[in-house]
């Protein structure tokens, strides 16, 4: 990047060496998928396999190899911006497909042994934070707990499940999300992210393409939960309205969300309210395709203008970045205004 023309290229570190310049002559495409939660982040690189170069020693990527990937731009936003860099993730090579024309490398954001091995264990009483720390330490990952409350779990049993699939289910039952990124295990309350400052403003008149999905007809106003009746000595289904869960009276039961679990912390009302909020939060979804922005990531907030009633702040639930042309596809949902906000 030694001229003033607007440019972008991947920044790839492999075996502690920057191999970006070596890969560029062979690069057909590079795709990074950054997910807010639920699904591992992924990397896909397609390379021209001239003379079977990616089967040779020193060029072949092996299963389990670690790639650190970023995006480097030159004068991308303005003519005088200069060189800017943004890291996108650390990935473990999981799949390889090669033929005489191309080599396709697929990688994920978690150590492969965490993805492939089922385990069994029991816990009597443990906090969610401590459980997360235990799994992070097991796989030599950093750990971050972005939850205000202390969640105590009782009588946990893991049966031949992969550790992160088990932890994800336990966390989700308490309304908490899990993400693996940059060799870090993160447990977080998505609701807390909605209070972040907006990172960028996008004009819907200027993006390459967009799609808005209005799901207002799918909003629930009550939940059906199961709880134990100490008089009848049996489990029974009970419908509780959102208004009741918030301590504001009876409320309506026009559309009922049926819950099958109860969570492990024992707080049924808190569990029901969390599940109701999660089900209702995506009342308006927005997909955007546009020129890439190196700073957009899953979990960040952006603002939309010139979209009428859909103006406002949005949470990025997934962003897909592709090179060499650097196009991004954003999946997001509109953040509901709190009571009293305008």
From TrEMBL:
<protein>
    <recommendedName>
        <fullName>Phage protein D</fullName>
    </recommendedName>
</protein>
């Amino acid at each position: 990047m030694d001229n003033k023309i607007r440019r972008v290229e991947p920044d790839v570190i492999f075996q502690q060496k920057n191999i970006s310049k070596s890969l560029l002559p062979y690069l057909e495409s590079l795709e990074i998928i950054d997910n807010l939660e639920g699904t591992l982040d992924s990397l896909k690189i397609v390379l021209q396999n001239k003379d079977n170069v990616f089967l040779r020693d020193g060029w072949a990527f092996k299963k389990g190899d670690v790639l650190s990937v970023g995006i480097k731009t030159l004068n991308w936003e303005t003519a005088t911006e200069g060189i800017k860099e943004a890291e996108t993730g650390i990935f473990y090579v999981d799949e390889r497909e090669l033929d005489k024309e191309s080599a396709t490398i697929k990688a994920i954001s978690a150590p492969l042994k965490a993805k492939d091995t089922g385990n069994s264990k029991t816990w009597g009483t443990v906090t969610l934070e401590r459980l997360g720390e235990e799994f992070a330490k097991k796989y030599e990952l950093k750990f971050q707990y972005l939850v205000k409350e202390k969640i105590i779990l009782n009588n946990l049993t893991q049966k031949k499940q992969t550790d992160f699939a088990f932890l994800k289910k336990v966390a989700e039952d308490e309304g908490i999300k899990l993400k693996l990124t940059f060799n870090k295990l993160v447990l977080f309350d998505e609701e807390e992210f909605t209070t972040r400052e907006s990172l960028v403003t996008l004009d819907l008149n200027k993006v390459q393409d967009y799609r808005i999905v209005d799901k207002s007809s799918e909003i629930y106003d009550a939940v059906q939960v199961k709880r134990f009746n100490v008089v009848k000595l049996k489990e029974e289904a009970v419908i509780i309205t959102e208004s009741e869960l918030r301590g504001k009276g009876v409320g309506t039961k026009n559309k009922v969300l049926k819950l099958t679990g109860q969570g492990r912390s024992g707080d049924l009302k808190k569990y029901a309210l969390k599940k109701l909020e999660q089900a209702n939060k995506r009342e308006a979804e927005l997909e955007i395709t546009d020129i890439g922005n190196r700073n957009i990531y899953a979990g960040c907030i952006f603002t939309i203008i010139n979209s009428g009633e859909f103006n406002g702040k949005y949470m990025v639930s997934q962003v897909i970045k592709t090179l060499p042309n650097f196009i991004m596809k954003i999946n997001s949902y509109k953040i509901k205004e709190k009571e009293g906000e305008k």
